[in-house]
Design brief:
It is a single chain. It is built from 24 helices and 35 strands. It is of the alpha+beta class. The strands form eleven sheets. Strands 8, 26, 27, 28, 31, 32, 34 and 35 form an eight-stranded mixed sheet that branches. The radius of gyration is 30 Å and the shape is globular. It starts with a helix and ends with a strand.
Length: 973
Amino acid sequence: MTGGSSVAEQSVIVERVEDTDKEKKKKRRSNRRSKHNSACNSGNEARGESSASLKSKDKTKSLTSSMSSSSSKQQELQQTPDRASDVAFNSMPTMHINEKAGSSCDDTAVDVGGRFFWKSWLEPIAYVGSSKMCMDSFLHFQQVEGSAPKKLFAPYWPIEAVNEALEKGEAFKALFRVNAHNRLEAYCKIDGVPTDVLINGVSSQNRAVEGDIVVIKFDPVELWTKMKGSNGSLNNSARVEDCNSVQDVNGPAGNSYKGKDSSHMGLFPGQSLGLNSVERLASMTNQFPLKRPTGKDLPGCIKKRLEDGDVTIEMELLAALIEDWSPESPFPVARISHSFGRGGELEPQMNAILFQNAIHSADFPPEVLSCLSNVPWDIPPEELQTRRDLRDLCIFTIDPSTASDLDDALSVEKLSKDSFRVGVHVADVSYFVLPNTALDIEAQIRSTSVYMMQRKIQMLPSLLSEQLGSLNPGVDRLAFSMFWEINSTGDVLDHWIGRTVIRSCCKLSYEHAQDIIKGGIVDVEKFNTLKGYPQLHGQFGWTDVIRSVKCLHEISKTLKEKRFNDGALPLESAKVVYLVDEYGVPYDTRLSERIDSNFLVEEFMLLANMTAAEVISRAFPDSALLRRHPEPNMRKLKEFEAFCHKHGLELDTSSSGQFRQSLEKIREKLRDDSVLFDVLILYASKPMHLATYFCSGELKDNLNDWSHYALAVPLYTHFTSPLRRYPDIVVHRTLAAVIEAEELYLKHRGLLKSNNEEDVPRRYFTGIYFDKEAAESPLGKEALSSAALKYGIPSPELLSNVAAYCNERKLASRHAEDACEKLYMWVLLKKKKILLSDARVLGLGPRFMSVYIQKLAIERRIYYDEVEGLTVEWLESTSSVVLNLSGHKRLFKRGGLRNYMALGNVAWVVNPYDLSVETGSIDDCDATYMIDPGTFPLTLCLLSTIHVALYAIGGDDGPLEIGVRLFMSSYLK
């Protein structure tokens, strides 16, 4: 069955399953559209008496909070009245600890290493922002007293019906994400489909909140709506939620779909009947690139969500577990599961961030610690016999000055006039973390170390990460070493990989190495006595270390240039560094850019990771853990390219190499406007997808999908940080298996020599040239199979699960680190009360503007429509806006009883006679300076520079947020 008949039949089936009459469905859809449109227009503005009405029905205030990546119109000033969004719930994921047995959700406990965990905790928990429902959406929820309850949501489907729809390809499972600026819009990502799905409206979302795993279906193509910005070009008059911008500042990266009603999947002419459901959907989106398919959440098992419920502890930061949410109620029923403390204090917020992202921060249990040896520890004699001894080689580490877990070290030897042997030596953590031990299971669960400003949540116990495994100076350590013979043009002529014993001679910081690179060490004889410099160990002097650092720097510059010429794309911007007092409380910030010593280390770590990827993928083509970076979202990239062209900046995004060259030319052109270049780099990164781990066997039929776009290399993995990343341990085991297999193969052929001899006759599996014939021979297969079994190389199916889980944990750690950075920013602003700064207009429209504050490297919105005492004139022809003060007051909006927003919410207006306002310094903690305020009328266009006032919102009285207002002056104040 093909074409329209298939579509028609499936339509009937869907209607029968939903037990819905066609005519009623059409009427409902029409009513829902009108309600959704109304809600979308005012979704972020619900205030006044509507808020009071809702508040009378539910007195609870939101007590769980998290910091969004950017502000919305719901940002409050200290005097802002309560709004509907304030009494709606804010969600944080729970770990399902103490959840009742017999829940309809699949949250059964599993025994992992002798301890019980909930399956839902082991699943990914994405970053959750404020999950709010606007008042306009709830107006029709209010019931007349005495009337029968009206169902506000569709009933849940039985799990059997959901599974059946998934198996038939009529529905898709996806992660539910809420638009931070519009609660009515939520996005779902389906693997294999190039664009996101937008689920529009409260009823279509059917009680799902941020972070839920949901099931969705699609409308017929004729109901798909036009994509934002799908006119084929980007210009100042193209609107995104009534906002002109460099990029689509309102939604996530990727194209979007809009969703309304349930629908069905059908085959289109030219489609193969053999395609699976995801491939069919991807094909449909490619056939209609300017349209958005529509869909909604199927009623399913809603696992975990949080809601507050106790007005007596309004200042407490709480987590709650949703236990029930009936179709008749706009609010769920929840119980408090955790109390973290005062919402305005640093430590409770930090603990809430860890809880929210399911970061396992408990102490390591005794069964884990029992897997490790006590200190002092000596390398066993059998390891000294089987490993290559490098203790007489000048090896040193370069790390941040505060680092205590030293993963990697470097060495260099000059072989001839134009060739060098460079060594990267990585802690051999796989020697200590054996497969399927309690230590290994704990490392798997944590997956990664999490760095949260002054706090570090370690993947491995400090006994291992800071002592036994760390490459500390002056002690013998086990390592995985790689050597490359590199000529003066950066070509790798040969390489060697093996397990070694090393002894680092010193621990350099990046600042020490930078001082050496810049020639800051003049008198080498006095260098060892200079304050702040590290102690040397062993027979090597500072002359050896300085010579090695300078040599490595020159080689790294050659490698970097060669890498960029091959198409690598760096998208680097300044990072905000927080200065803290003795109690760990931030008091100021500064912008920090990367220096030469950072790039020195990076180049050789990249080379080591690429080499490891090449070796393990050749020897184990189905069981190699690799890392890929897909090409960016081309639609958004083309929009960015069009924007640059409109502003006289030539940009070529045809390849990563051309992209980089274009950005370098733009950097030179904007050398006097560094802020604008930072803005461009910020938006150049938005179309980029996240890099992810994957099992090679999972994509063995799609080798082109293995590549890393930003690095412009066909193969990449993580090898150099096994003390803080579990995937590196897996890669170490795989490398150890390749080395073992090669030794077995050579032994059977009678070619193996002593491990401490410089060379072996030939390296069949680990050398620069791979002998595929040897690997596929019966002897080679037997050697590889035996080594894989010995070192616990997972099957492709299991390795795919490991990769997926590591991706989830890495994303969670990133969200936790980002949330922590925003928390420190909030604490800083709370302390300063007001921070004045310049800002750049990124997006502009009749309702709001989006601005970038370089000093804090953040993007925020300022809403100015429907503000008491402020007139807004949107000039469509020039895509500019004029803001001016109005002489008459308007207390209520037309067509409703909601209040206009106070002028103080939009602008901090000062009298010109009182301009002695000092700003908190960012670049120099001892300096103060003044910023002149703007004046009315204020005319703004895209990329205008404005002056803003930043301040902290929330804490004890609500969710944390960074507020921003225009900094203006007026005699009318």
